[in-house]
Design a protein that fits this description.
This protein is an alpha/beta fold and 233 residues long. It contains nine helices and eight strands. The strands form two sheets. It has a five-stranded parallel β-sheet. A three-stranded antiparallel β-sheet has the order 3-4-5. Strand 4 and strand 5 form a beta hairpin. The longest helix has 17 residues.
């Protein structure tokens, strides 16, 4: 996989939006694509995870939409890239690994389901994207956050493949679980994300569907970068 950033004048100021269900490869793929085309990577899901982590750490009731909405407006969430790693900071403290804990992953959908929370986060995300030249990913990025994105991509994969990827990620973090537990967790998250009242997960009509089930990570990145070349040539 070629690592040199693309140097296309036609790329300047564009927005590439990528969404899809949990474990479809959005985060890693989006980060690498951003590096390849010289864009900023916006991990919208990490923002909800950061809020969820804060709520769990401070024993805030996850069903209290009013309190969570107030926090969503005022909590300072920052992204910094260091050594090709997208690092997440909350209140100035790095929480990159903490927001990937299983308890955060399990509860993020409930936090994100609150209308006020989503409205606050969407405003922050749209502010990030005002000047373009970003690759944004999340579960409503192409339909709600950036409905007029220059290129929309919907990543998908089988539940089994998504659970296997998640298992490998957790093993690298030293977290023990089983493939069966992760498959059940992903099915539950899919249901919550697609059936929630506010900003449910859905495929935008003009999104390009990319099934990553049988793709390597390098293959996913190469495929989408070539798609970007073709779209913005």
């Amino acid at each position: 996989m070629e690592n040199r950033p693309l140097k296309l004048s036609s790329l300047k100021g564009k927005i590439v939006a990528i969404d899809g269900p949990a474990g479809s490869g959005k985060s890693t793929t989006s980060k690498l694509i951003a590096a390849r085309i010289g864009y900023t990577y916006l991990d919208t899901g990490a923002m909800y995870r950061a809020l969820t982590y804060y709520a769990l750490t401070n024993k805030i009731d996850l069903s209290d939409g009013e309190k969570l909405t107030k926090l969503a407006h005022i909590l300072p969430i920052e992204f910094k890239t260091s050594e090709d790693v997208n690092r997440v900071f909350l209140n100035g403290v790095e929480v990159t690994d903490e927001i990937r804990r299983p308890d955060v992953t399990k509860n993020a959908s409930e936090v994100a389901a609150h209308k006020g929370v989503r409205e606050a986060m969407v405003r922050k995300q749209q502010e990030f994207g005002k000047h373009g030249s970003i690759v944004a990913e999340g579960r409503d990025t192409t339909t709600v956050v950036f409905p007029k994105a220059d290129l929309k991509i919907y990543l998908n994969a089988t539940v089994e493949q998504r659970a296997q990827r998640r298992l490998l990620d957790l093993m690298r973090m030293g977290i023990t679980t089983t493939l069966e537990e992760l498959q059940e967790d992903i099915k539950n998250r899919d249901h919550k994300d697609s059936s929630r009242e506010h900003s449910p997960l859905m495929k935008a009509k003009d999104a390009v569907v990319v099934d990553t089930t049988n793709m390597t990570l390098e293959g996913q990145v190469d495929y989408i970068v070539n798609l970007i070349r073709t779209t913005f040539k």
